[in-house]
Amino acid sequence: MANRPSIAQDLLWRLEAVGFDVLTALARIFPIDMVSDAGAWAFQRLGPLTSAHRVAETNLRIVFPEAPDAEIARLLRAQWAAAGRWAAEFPILDRIIADPSRVELVNGERLAQIARDSEPVVFISGHFSSFEIMPASIIHAGVICQVTYRATNNPYVDARIRKSRWRYGVRLFAPKGGDGARELLEALGRGESVALMNDQKFNGGVAAPLFGVTAHTAPGPSRLALRFGAALQPMSVQRKDKARFRVVVHDPIRLESTGDRTADIETGVGRVNAFIEERIRERPEEWFWVHKRWPNEIYKRR
User: Fold this and answer.
1) Maximum CA extent, the chain
2) Nearest CA among 254, 133, 232, 155 for reference residue 188
3) Model's pTM, two decimal places?
4) Of 128, 167, 80, which is closest to residue 247 (Cα–Cα)?
5) 193-197 and 232-241: which strand pairing?
6) Which of 76-80, 137-141, 298-302 has the lowest mean pLDDT?
7) What contacts 118, CB < 8 A, 6 or more positions away?
8) What DSSP letter does each residue of 119-174 carry, written as one string?
9) pLDDT score of 2
C-alpha cells in the first residue's frame, strides 16, 4: 500500500491544485493568442531567475559549442518564450485543436494509412513546441494508441491534467513505469499503436551519442519495435506563429532484426537520437532545453 501523505503535504497539494484551477479558469476566459503571448511574456521574465536557466545555457553550449554569447543569449530568451507559450496553452489545447485553422497536419496520409490498415507502430517524438498536440493529432486521425505520460507528484493536479487531455480526445494512457511497460506490451499485442517521448535522460538506458556527447537514452521504443516487428513512426510539432502549429508526420524508421538484439536496440537508439538531433538543429528555439539531458557531471563542471 502506498504511503499516505502527511496532512501538511496533502494541504499543500490541494492549494497547488486550487492555483492550477485559477490559472486554467483565467486562461479559458481570454482569446487564445493573448493567452499564448502572456505565457511567453511571463516566462521570459521569470525563467532567467531560476536554476533551470543555467541548465538551459549548459545544454545550448553543448549543442552549439561555436555559437557566440549573443546567439546563446538569443536562444535562451527564445526558448523561455516557447516554454511559456506551451505552459499557458496547455489548459486551452482543446480550443486550439478544435480550430482547424490553428493546426496544420503534414503527411497526414501516413496517419490515415496506419488507421486504415490497423498497422501497429511505435510513435516517437520529443518535447518540441506544444508537443501535446501530437497525441491529439494521432487520436483524431482514427489511430488507436496508448500514450505514455509521467504522472505529477501532486495527485490532485495529475487528475486535472488527465481531465484536460480528455477534453481534446486523448483518453488512452499507459503510465510510465512497470505498469506502463506491461500496458504497452499488451496494446501492441492487440494490434494497437503506442506513443512515447524519447528525448529525455533515462538512467540505465543505452549510452548513445547525442550531439557528440554520451546521453543515456531509453531503449523502450526500439525494443518494442523490434519485438513486434513494428515501425518507429517519428512525429514533431512546430510553431508557425503564436498558437498556430504544424504537426509533421515524418518517414517511418524500420529497424532490422539481425539476431543480435543488443546491437539492434543500440542501432535503433542511435537512429532515434539522430532524428532528435535533426529536429533540434532545425528549430532550436522550440526544444525543452531546461531538462538535464546529459550526465550530471557535465552540469557540475560548468
Assistant:
1) 57
2) 232
3) 0.92
4) 128
5) unpaired
6) 298-302
7) 191
8) ---EEEE--BSSTTHHHHHHHHTT--EEEEE---S-HHHHHHHHHHHHHTT---EE
9) 59
